[in-house]
Amino acid sequence: YTFVNERLAKHYGIADITGSEFRRVSLTGTPRSGVLTQASILTLTSNPGRTSPVKRGKWIMENILGTPPPAPPPDVPQLEETQKAAPNASLREQLELHRKDPKCAVCHQQMDALGFGFENFDAIGGWRDQDGKFTIDSSGTLPSGESFKTPAELVKILSDRREQFSRALTEKMLTYALGRGLEYYNRCAVDKIVESLAKNDYHLLHLVTEIVLSKPFRMRRGEGAKHDPSVGS
């Protein structure tokens, strides 16, 4: 399910919604399911004028799987150079040419596969079957060997990685709660929270509770108040 008002419902292709008030609606029978098919995320991970499978794949690796790719080498050619060399090719074909460089292929093999899985959604998250003259191909195979043909099938693959996602989410929420990046000595706390989550069906409320009760949160050091010499001790 999701929450929409009339304007967002039209964007999502959901009928019979009127008014500006947001209400809960079922996504059954639509191509959407979960945060990865929300227009907000799909827009965030696009370029101003087109989709970006690279940005979408990178976002998933960083925020869903907790496996951020390394920074690209400084001498790797930009995609724009490939586009100029093959202006009549589809975006998928252009990125395939880009991956022929061994320095690019290592990271882009997984990143591009994840991103292209959502190519049916345009740069602002609307559904499409065509990109100009090209028919959209959202199929792909992950390095794990798992294959998919549609965005829904890719979402199902990712949703089955509950332990991996729960660890990534735990690390990000604990980082937010502490107001700093995690250190190696926080690993035990993260492991304990993830283990507890698995025993409690991965409920979000339980995650928040475990973070608040965790040793790093309870023992965090607050910033000392700055002494104002104009105020008496």
Notable traits:
233 residues, mainly alpha, 46% helix, single chain, two-stranded antiparallel ribbon
Provide an overview of this structure:
The protein is mostly helical. It has three domains: 1-30, no CATH class; 32-159, no CATH class; 162-218. It contains eleven helices and six strands. The strands form three sheets. A two-stranded antiparallel sheet has the order 1-2. Strand 3 (130-131) and strand 4 (134-135) form a beta hairpin. The longest helix has 17 residues, at 162-178. The chain is globular and about 60 Å long. The model has no long low-confidence stretch (mean pLDDT 90).
Major sheet strand order: 1-2
Low-confidence stretches: none
Could you tell me the mean pLDDT? 90
Q: Compute the number of structural domains.
A: 3
- Number of helical stretches of at least 4 residues: 11
Helix content bin? 40-55%
**Major beta-sheet overview:** 2 strands, antiparallel
Oligomeric category: single chain
The assigned structural class equals mainly alpha
Termini, distance in Å? 57 Å
Provide the succession of SSEs: EHEHHHHHEEEEHHHHH
Q: What is the C-alpha radius of gyration, as a whole number of Å?
A: 22 Å
Query: Which descriptor suits the 3D outline?
Result: globular
Task: Please provide the count of β strands.
Answer: 6
Question: What percentage of the residues does DSSP assign to strands (E)?
Answer: 5-15%
